Structure formats: C-alpha cells, structure tokens
What we know:
Layout: H1 10-28, E1 33-37, E2 42-44, H2 47-51, H3 58-69, E3 76-79, H4 85-92, E4 97-101, H5 104-112, E5 117-119, E6 132-137, H6 148-158, E7 159-169, E8 177-185, E9 193-197, H7 200-210, E10 212-220, E11 223-230
Parallel strand pairs: 3-4, 3-6, 4-5, 6-7
Antiparallel strand pairs: 1-2, 1-8, 7-11, 8-9, 10-11
Helix pairs in contact: 6-7
Amino acid sequence: MDVFAGDTSAAxxxxxxxxxxxxxxxxxxxxxxxxxxxxxxxxxxxxARWMGGxxxxxxxxxxxxxxxxxxxxxxxxxxxxxxxxFTASLQQRGLPALGVDSSPAAVEMTxxxxxxxxxxxLFAPLPAEGSWEQIxxxxxxxxxxxxxxxxxxxxxxxxxxxxxxxxxxxxxxxVLSYELLxxxxxxxxxxxxxxxxxxxxxxxxxxxxxxxxxxxxxxxDDRVIAxxxxxxxx
Length: 234
C-alpha cells in the first residue's frame, strides 16, 4: 500500500471513523488512547484536551479561547468536530456553528453537550457550501486523509468570500510527514488510515497551493494555531 498516496476513499474514511469511535468511547470511560504509525512510532493522544471539560489544562483552555476569539457572529463550520468542544462553546456564546464528523460517537457526544452536529463525510456535499465565514480545522485536522492541500481546498470551497480557516498545526520543528496511522487502546486496535502532520515551516506553501494566505501563526504552550485567509479567485 502506498503510504504517501493521500487516499481519501470511502473505505479509508470508514476506517478513520471506526477508529475515532473507538478512542472517544474509551476516553469517555476513562481509558487511555494512543496513536501508532506504520513505522511503529507510538504517541499518546491528548484525549483530555479533545474531550474538553474539567480535565482540560489551563494552557489548553487558553489555546482554545484563542481559537474561539477568531469566530464572529457569522456561521462557523467545525470540520472534524470530534466530541464538539468548539461547536458547543460557540453555541453557548450565542454564535451560530455546525460540527461535522464522520464518527457517529463524536456527533453523539457533540449533541449531548448542546452542540449542533451532523454525521457526514467532509468531502461529500455539505450544508451552505460557499457561505461559511469561519472553518475550524483544529487538533491537527489539516492532516485528514493524508493530503493537507486537498483538505484545505475543501475548506476553501466551503468558505464565503473573505472567510478564514483557523488551523491547528504541529510544532515548528515538525517537518511535513505522511503516515498510516492507527488509534489504539488497552483493549482494542483501530483500523489503519492515512494522515499527515504539518509543521509551521511547511504551512505557507501548502496554504498557497490550496488558495490561502497565512495571516497569523501563534504558539501557545505546545500548540500552534494559524489563521488562513482565502485568496480571491484568479
């Protein structure tokens, strides 16, 4: 299998969704979760951050607040919303937001905490295409499908003119990498799916190729958050 193909087929999407169900349900029950790539490298997943709630660290709350401050009263689409901490937070502030995730467990958790979310493939037709003012691609979701240019181009298609994408990337030292990834718990092994990791040094070229300009990059503790502005069509 070609690790670097950036396959975003339905089969790979289903594999990622079932893996996400696995870790979200495990985390909700208090279990630990980690990722393993095709090279055998293992890294712990920041499940307390992703799940939100009282276990979130002050540094993560500060970084999340930085993301939320970029969202206006115009609608926000949270791509790969996970358990919905951003979608729910925006709606609690009276701001319109919709979460989208391919994981049924994620959508269920988002709704349970008061957010509006739909279970859907991010690359299939979505509501209000071309009308969203802000797109969120947090928690490394620029890496969805192993092809960050394709993911950002999808975001560009969804945005209104002058809209922004708020993207969370890897640390500045991280080079652009492509991998097959599997999420694991003590009891279960997920399915392999393609992923990419994008550091700050690679973001400019990727964003420009996808039709964006990087207008801000901020590092808050160990998290890096960038704001991308959609370029006017040529």
